[in-house]
Write a structure and sequence with these properties.
Structural class: alpha+beta
Order of helices and strands: HHEEEEHHHHHH
Number of strands: 4
Radius of gyration: 29 Å
Mean pLDDT: 87
CATH architecture of the largest domain: Alpha-Beta Complex
Largest sheet: 4 strands, antiparallel
Number of helices: 8
Length: 203
């Protein structure tokens, strides 16, 4: 049996009375499922490592949480798991909110096996970055003719710049676009953002 970290003992001891039996139970389960587990405190709450991060537990004001680092692989197709709070078992307010002990031990064993086999977590897709703002040539040309408008536009945030560019680009007819271009240069020369009409007036 691996040694227990005194810092985890201290964490459990400082937790709310309702949380202490839950945390002690989870700790016992992890050690049963992976006798070689190593305990540590990361990000201010207990983690359990075995050839890499395996799982973690935490106590909050009214609930606890318990989750696995490679939960996507461990719980694939398992309807018993539910991603809430910061774990895979929802808000744990009592031992009754957890699956049976043998089920939990099975999850821990699977987590240990994945780490032993060197299996990595599935790659998480990153949110797509907004494409860089392309300013139409006719807008650039108009800005160059009006230094005040150009200075205002260049000082604007990307979102404020995008509002003008998209407003011009949404015009269905050339006449409409020309009118919007004239209005845009006028407003910019006065230091106004595209939606200045809807902004609260300074008191």
């Amino acid at each position: 049996m691996a040694e227990k970290d005194p810092l985890v003992d201290a964490y459990i001891g400082k937790s709310a009375p309702f949380a202490q039996p839950i945390l002690k139970h989870l700790r016992r389960v992890v050690h049963a499922g992976c006798p070689e587990v190593e305990e540590t405190i990361k990000w201010q709450f207990p983690h359990f490592d075995h050839k890499g991060m395996m799982c973690s537990m935490a106590a909050f004001k009214h609930h606890c949480a318990f989750g696995f680092w490679k939960g996507e692989l461990i719980f694939k197709g398992d309807k018993r798991a539910k991603l809430e709070a910061m774990g895979h078992f929802g808000r744990i307010a009592s031992l009754a909110d957890l699956p049976p002990e043998e089920i939990l031990i099975g999850y821990v064993r699977k987590a240990a096996q994945l780490n032993e086999a060197g299996v990595k977590s599935p790659a998480r897709s990153r949110p797509k970055k907004k494409s860089s703002l392309k300013i139409p040539e006719y807008f650039n040309a108009a800005l160059k003719k009006n230094p005040k408008a150009r200075a205002t536009f260049e000082d604007f945030t990307p979102s404020n710049q995008r509002e003008y560019v998209e407003w011009l680009g949404d015009a269905k007819r050339d006449e409409t676009r020309d009118q919007r271009l004239e209005t845009s240069i006028l407003w910019l020369a006065e230091g106004k953002p595209r939606n200045w009409k809807y902004m609260p007036s300074p008191k």
